[in-house]
């Protein structure tokens, strides 16, 4: 009967909820140990400029392998780390390890361009964030001009003086800012004129169907035009197919990141890619 079905549906639903809540508790406690157990690694994904045919930079993406939970996606564990506050410690680790890797590559003459590090809203809003970045830069010796911080619109939605001061202070050191997942947030665009932003990252959701969905192509074109008019660079993320890149090129976008140009790679693989790139650059 419908009543029974309803009950079953409810039981199924609540079992799912319980399982999900249980899973979250497991992830929370496992996350607490992850750093000390060396379960985190960084992956690096190329960002390229097809106009100059060069590496613009690498986005730094955190990876977590747990012995029993397996590989947990950052899309799952980052929001949880934000809720529990663990993101402060994890975010510091990511920044530090990225700068250490970048220094090694600079010493080896590997042409990686910039390192783009994702920063969560609660991380950026922490009172000591600017000090933290300065400290990591000073301790590692990584050049600030090679560091880009990727912020989402959720950071910029509260455009307080303190937030703007923090950004200006970092910008004063040479640090750059990109707005991640641009076009998917709920904030007004007024922050674009108040904040020192260098680059918009056009969200993958507008790229996926750019050749079949008129609205997506129109939005992508508007973002590229907005960037050009405001003197901001625009990079499109999540490019998987050549026809997506060519549609974006027709709209005036030349900066790309996506599986078509390179997967996120662990250190040894990205170093091999960078070595090849160095050879290509010095070849006659
Ligand atoms: P994001 O910053 O927008 O990063 C881009 C995501 O898209 C990455 O997922 C990347 O692996 C994926 N991606 C890149 N190119 C393609 C493509 O062509 N096709 C498809 N299908 N996917 C592509 P990932 O690594 O799973 O990270 C998910 C999100 O987790 C990131 O989105 C970012 O918001 C967050 N995240 C990752 N690492 C960190 C970190 O160190 N700190 C913080 N705060 N957040 C991080
Ligand atoms: Mg990002
Ligand atoms: Mg993104
Ligand atoms: Mg995204």
From TrEMBL:
The chain holds residues 521 to 804 of 804 of the full protein. This is EAL domain-containing protein. Residues 24-278 form the EAL domain.
């Amino acid at each position: 009967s419908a009543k029974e079905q309803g009950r079953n549906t409810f039981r199924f639903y609540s079992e799912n909820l319980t399982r999900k809540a249980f899973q979250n508790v497991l992830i929370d406690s496992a996350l607490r140990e992850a750093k000390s157990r060396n379960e985190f690694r960084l992956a690096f994904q190329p960002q390229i400029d097809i106009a100059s045919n060069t590496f613009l930079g690498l986005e730094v993406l955190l990876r977590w392998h747990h012995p029993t939970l397996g590989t947990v996606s950052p899309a799952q564990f980052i929001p949880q780390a934000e809720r529990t506050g663990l993101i402060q410690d994890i975010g510091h680790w990511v920044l530090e390890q990225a700068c250490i890797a970048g220094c090694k590559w600079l010493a080896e003459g590997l042409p990686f361009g910039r390192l783009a590090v994702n920063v969560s809203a609660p991380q950026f809003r922490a009172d000591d964030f600017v000090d933290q970045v300065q400290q990591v830069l000073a301790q590692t010796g990584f050049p600030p001009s090679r560091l880009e911080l990727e912020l989402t619109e959720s950071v910029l939605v509260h455009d307080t003086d303190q937030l703007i001061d923090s950004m200006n202070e970092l910008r004063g050191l040479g640090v750059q800012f990109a707005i991640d997942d641009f076009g998917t947030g709920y904030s007004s665009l007024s922050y674009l004129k108040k904040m020192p932003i260098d680059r918009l990252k056009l969200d993958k959701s507008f790229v996926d169907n750019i050749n079949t969905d008129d609205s997506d192509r129109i939005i992508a074109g508007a973002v590229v035009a907005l960037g050009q008019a405001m003197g901001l660079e625009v990079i499109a993320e999540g490019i998987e197919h050549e026809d997506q890149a060519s549609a974006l090129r027709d709209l005036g976008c030349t900066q790309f990141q996506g599986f078509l140009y390179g997967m996120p790679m662990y250190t040894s693989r990205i170093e091999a890619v960078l070595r090849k790139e160095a050879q290509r650059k010095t070849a006659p």
